[in-house]
TrEMBL record:
<comment type="similarity">
    <text>Belongs to the ABC transporter superfamily.</text>
</comment>
<keyword id="KW-0067">ATP-binding</keyword>
<protein>
    <submittedName>
        <fullName>ABC transporter ATP-binding protein</fullName>
    </submittedName>
</protein>
<keyword id="KW-0547">Nucleotide-binding</keyword>
<feature type="domain" description="ABC transporter">
    <location>
        <begin position="3"/>
        <end position="252"/>
    </location>
</feature>
<dbReference type="InterPro" id="IPR027417">
    <property type="entry name" value="P-loop_NTPase"/>
</dbReference>
<dbReference type="Pfam" id="PF00005">
    <property type="entry name" value="ABC_tran"/>
</dbReference>
<dbReference type="Pfam" id="PF08352">
    <property type="entry name" value="oligo_HPY"/>
</dbReference>
<dbReference type="InterPro" id="IPR017871">
    <property type="entry name" value="ABC_transporter-like_CS"/>
</dbReference>
<dbReference type="InterPro" id="IPR050319">
    <property type="entry name" value="ABC_transp_ATP-bind"/>
</dbReference>
<dbReference type="InterPro" id="IPR003593">
    <property type="entry name" value="AAA+_ATPase"/>
</dbReference>
<dbReference type="GO" id="GO:0005524">
    <property type="term" value="F:ATP binding"/>
</dbReference>
<dbReference type="InterPro" id="IPR013563">
    <property type="entry name" value="Oligopep_ABC_C"/>
</dbReference>
<dbReference type="InterPro" id="IPR003439">
    <property type="entry name" value="ABC_transporter-like_ATP-bd"/>
</dbReference>
<keyword id="KW-0813">Transport</keyword>
Amino acid sequence: MLLEAKNVSKTFRSSGRGSSSVHAVKEVSLTAQRGEFVAIVGESGSGKSTLARMLLDLHPASSGSIELNGVDVRSMNKAQRQDFRRTVQAVLQDPSGSLNPRKSIAQSIGEVIRLHKIADSRRDIRTKTLEALELVGLDPAEHYIDRFPHELSGGQRQRVLIARAVALNPQIIIADEAVSALDASVKAGVLRVMADLQERLNVGYVFITHDLPVVKKVADYVHVMYQGEVVEHGPAREIFENPQHEYTATLLDAAPTLDSLTESSPAADSSAV
Ligand SMILES: Nc1ncnc2c1ncn2[C@@H]1O[C@H](COP(=O)(O)OP(=O)(O)OP(=O)(O)O)[C@@H](O)[C@H]1O
């Protein structure tokens, strides 16, 4: 299982007269695979979200290609596309309105399970939903499944978003600022859930963030983006210990310390969410 960006660029043409186009992503190449935690870091406006949207096949690339196991998303047939939509999942940050406030957790997760034909009877869908909630540490799941988003904390809602992705048995999760809005201890709990899923289900992550302490804690491999380009990439340890690019060094200098994220709290401990 390999998700690949090959020399992808994205240019947004301006609609107004006189203003120029925005080259949001410039010739970026990267790979993501099962079991691996790949981070994309960079300041606001560096093109991270645009790259994420291309990896999810939500934005077409202006040039270059996105490929899953060597098949270009543009040339996929219906079955291949459906498979892509299931195996490559997105987890975005909750404040962006990812959960419908009028739907219970059972409805929000149940509808994607039905859509992707993971289960079809009401009973099987509920069982699958309960399993997914337990996997993200919302345990006992019966306690959460019939609640509405406003009845949950921010950390619990973020876990629900992960559960909704996990219910589809994904192989890669693209997480765009998925923990950035959370307080440090809650953030640590959600990160632990993600690491736990990596270990138990062999899920791979493309983790997009401007939050370097988080990257240091979880990433295997790091791509540093600056003004639409990947200016440096390599194993996380090398990037943190010996940054080669001036911009990376500046980013690291400006980052807060890791202290607040190092205390342990078990993934299954939903009291800490
Ligand atoms: N739909 C769009 N139309 C026009 N320009 C866009 C569009 N989406 C993004 N951009 C521009 O592309 C550039 C990269 O934006 P992008 O959101 O990908 O960066 P980012 O690194 O994810 O930033 P942030 O962390 O603030 O979300 C920015 O200059 C942005 O204004």
